[in-house]
Automatic annotation (TrEMBL):
The name this protein goes by in its record: Probable pirin-like protein
Family of the protein in this entry: Belongs to the pirin family.
Gene Ontology molecular functions: metal ion binding
Cofactor: Fe cation
Keyword annotations from UniProtKB, A to Z: Iron, Metal-binding
Organism: Stutzerimonas stutzeri (strain A1501)
Superkingdom of the organism of origin: Bacteria
Positions annotated to bind Fe cation: H59, H61, H103, E105
Keyword check for Iron: yes
UniProt xrefs under Pfam families: Pirin, Pirin_C
Occurrences of domain Pirin N-terminal (ranges): 22-121
InterPro entries given in the database record: Pirin, Pirin_C_dom, Pirin_N_dom, RmlC-like_jellyroll, RmlC_Cupin_sf
SUPFAM superfamilies per the UniProt record, alphabetical: RmlC-like cupins
Length: 280
């Protein structure tokens, strides 16, 4: 079988969002179709409260899902549906904005490290104006798998399959069939997880260094791979990475800030709904 080939290796750009939270935008913005069905990945991480304390005051979303994975720290979620949740180290928040959610995400600490990721996952056209939803997953609810060579995996969504070993994630989604896995590879380890042909595959290294086909990928680098073939990963020095895979929707993507729809007219309707107080 042929191997998945590297299409690109990129590095995120420093930016800020919310009320001034410092973060790295790993991908998102122009050319987002390259990562379909994923729209954006942000990495945040700081032990300086000035860089995160202002948080994300109430703001709207429509047309996609947000997945927040907290590595370290505590964040409180509130939304217009009456949901209140505390996201702690190792926990996951999965929110389906669909036709509209207005929510806030505010730090519940005044010192220490705040570190994690937020991923935006597109919704298919038929679900963009569907019912919104929200779910918190405590760290103990996230399935773990111990693999040969000392490799550890946290399977947030989809399924991890390595040979005859299978571990389902805590979330399964139709249409986009996302796979979201936190992988930790010790020095000298290798891994060949099975990814369905045709699924978009992205790897983000956030600790250490990874080798793919003899090419090294360092901390803070995003790899996009071809959509066919076998995936083979090696790490001489050890690495920790997020594996993202999903089925592309192949639909038009039109984004305006926190709204992601299929046409400009739908974006204009979202703006009117938000102004009129009928978005959520």
């Amino acid at each position: 079988m042929s191997l998945r080939e590297i299409i690109s290796i990129t590095r995120g750009r420093p930016t800020s969002d919310g009320a001034g939270v410092s973060l790295t935008r790993v991908f998102g913005g122009a050319g987002v179709e390259r990562f379909d069905p994923f729209l954006m990945l942000d990495e945040f991480g700081s032990n300086d409260p000035d860089e995160y304390i202002a948080g994300f005051p109430p703001h709207p979303h429509r047309g996609f899902e947000t997945i927040t994975y907290m590595l370290e720290g505590r964040m409180r979620h509130e939304d217009h549906m009456g949901h209140v949740g505390l996201l702690e180290s190792g926990g996951v928040q999965w929110m389906t904005a669909a036709r509209g959610v207005i929510h806030s995400e505010m730090p519940q600490q005044e010192q220490g490290t705040m570190r994690g990721f937020q991923l935006w996952l597109n919704l298919p056209a038929h679900a963009k104006l569907g019912e919104p939803g929200y779910r918190d997953f405590a760290p103990a609810e996230i399935p773990r798998a111990s693999l040969p060579g000392g490799i550890e995996a946290k399977v947030i969504a989809g399924k991890l399959q390595v040979g005859e070993i299978e571990q389902a994630g805590v979330v399964q989604r139709p249409d986009t069939e996302p796979c979201l896995i936190d992988l930790q590879l010790p020095p000298g380890s290798q891994l060949a997880p099975t990814i369905p042909d045709g699924h978009r595959l992205l790897l983000y290294v956030f600790e250490g260094e990874l080798q793919i086909g003899g090419q090294s990928v360092g901390k803070g680098q995003l790899v996009r791979l071809s959509d066919q073939g076998e995936l083979q990963l090696n790490s001489r020095l050890g690495a920790r990475l997020m594996l993202l895979a999903g089925k592309p929707l192949g639909e038009p993507i039109v984004q305006y800030g926190p709204f992601v729809m299929n046409s400009r007219e739908q974006i204009e309707q979202a703006l009117r709904d938000f102004r009129d107080g009928t978005l959520a």
